[in-house]
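tmp note - Two-component system response regulator
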Amino acid sequence: MDDHTADYWVRQIRIGATVAAVVTAIGGVRVTMAWAQNARWWLLLVALAVVAQLALVRAPWGRWIRSERFRSRLLLWWYAEMPILVLFGVADPHGAMLYLTAGVLLLITAAALWSPRTVVTLGVLTGIGYLILLPIKANTGPGATLVLGAMFACVVALTGINAQSRRRLDARRRAAEQRAETLLAASADAVLAIGRDGTLQYVSPSVRQLLGYRVAELSGRRLNEILPGDRLLELNDFMAAMLALPVGGSQRTETRLRHADGSWVYVDVMGTNWIHDPDLRAVVVSLRDISARRELEEQLSRQAFTDSLTGMPNRARFRERLGDAVTAGADADAPVTVLLLDLDDFKLVNDNLGHSAGDELLTTIAERVRAQVRPDDVLARLGGDEFAILLHDLDPADASPLAERLLAAVREPIRLASRDITCSLSIGIASTVSSGERVGAEQLLGNADLAMYAAKRAGRNAYAIFDPTMTMSVLEEAQQRADLEHALEHDEFRVLYQPVVDMNTQRVTAVEALVRWQHPRDGLLGPYHFIAHAEANGLIVPLGRWVLRQACSQLARWRAESPAAAGLKVNVNLSARQFQYAGLVDDVAAALADAGLDPASLTLEITESMLMADITTAKETLHALRRLGVRLAIDDFGTGYSSLSYLKQLPVDVIKIDKTFVDEVHIDEDDVALVDAVAGLGQALKMQTVAEGIESSEQWDTLRRIGIDHGQGYLFGRPVSAGDIADLLEQPESVKHL
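out:
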């Protein structure tokens, strides 16, 4: 029996008990007024009956009535009333008339609870008693008795019909409630109705799937009995906020709840205030499981602050920790020391043994360095072959023994690709008090960088402690700027193109423009040798403009020379400073107009970190570029701070999944799950997905099975000249491979 039905039964039984007490009391008045003196001893029985019936009004029917056995026995109450009515009718001078009224009341109260068959049975028995009393007490003849009996039969039929109508209404109500329960049970959301005092008045069956509790375990309990003590303040604040809303007002929040198995479940909470609604009088709360979404966001956030290769904090996290340490050190008047470590000649390992061997080398070096630092020190990989150590309460002079231990540890031979490799470090040391006065976090890191380059200039495999005279390196930077300006003026830069292919057909759909420096002395240099310097001294803007114009004009030439290039697109990377440049949109428009290209042929690639540096300005710039008609891509997705809420607001067409996700996607289930989540995110936001750094058929097969749209990497082609791309486009589909 559900709560609604139980409440109805309790209410009707109490009404029936009250009616019985009133009718019995009226019978007592009748005994007093019309019965003979020697029969008034009945008053004692009548008084006891009235007291007993009034006591039954307050009985705990709510607990008793849920028992089916008790309800079947309760029917005896109605049957027991009939012989009492007959005896009273025989004893009273006007018993037939009183019997009729009491009998009708008996049938009416029975029709409110029992089945039509039971009501009719009671009516027949009551009618028999009435037909017996009529000739005796009312002196009616056969005709009158027949007429009165027929009228009483009509009353019986009417109460039976009422009982049947009530049963049908109850059945419809239960069916409607069952449908609602079925829908709620099938929903992934759990629905709670919480009273003003925090009592759970209703819990939908889907709470079992969400939190692992059965409905019976929660219904009727108060939330402060279920939630741990440290969550009560949050609960009180939530209920206070909900009760302050107008009727029907809603509020959304996110929190986490403890599952029955002890784990945490992150939920989206939508609460609506119906406390003042007379039909509900509760706060209705909908809970939706967002654990998967939160896990993805946390994974992306960890990726933003953790180096995927070594598991160490990355540059962003290190800068954050350094800023906190410098602020705390200034308050406590304690020194903060930074060691900047750079692996000497690491490029040779990558060039000679490959990137896999380079990654293995970096992992080994990271473990050796980690073994030399204290647990409370912060060790981070800033990128490439550069590491940093943050030391608290340590003078730079006392950091020298640590630097010597690090140099010795790294010099130990490392076995790579069947060869013993010996490496060395260049270490720069700086402190917040290195120059005699306190410095900020950025300057401290810059000082350590100057000291590290001083160690390199001194012959490498050494350490150097920052000295203010090291600022002479600024002159070297000026020389680097002059070299870059000379390169721009004398056309020393080259643009290579790497194919981007359809994952299913391997058809070349686009090429990515990649700049190289044809140095007159050092030969062809990759971007690691000059992009950072160009970014630092501002030359990246004219260099990026030149690459953009070269790429657009080259695409126009391909299309003019070969029908195979009709649908080809070109991707161009934007640097951080170039993206912030006020004339970027005009530069893009001019490059497209001069080349005679439709804007949709050009895809501009922007990294996540560039977007999140100033999301408001970034959105304005992206929308301005979108109005031109160019396509937009987020490059290296997952290596910056990935905010899903911002992503859906940006006019982005393509998500480029960073190589770090791809390297082990064919053997690492975590990478598979993360790439699959990003693919699903792309589909949900109607964005294309491109996987970078594909180097093996196993990676290709896995990514294709996940549903990645396009791929890029050495498996499909290395960066090559424009002529090689033209040859590639002319080849049959089955042999397009560089």
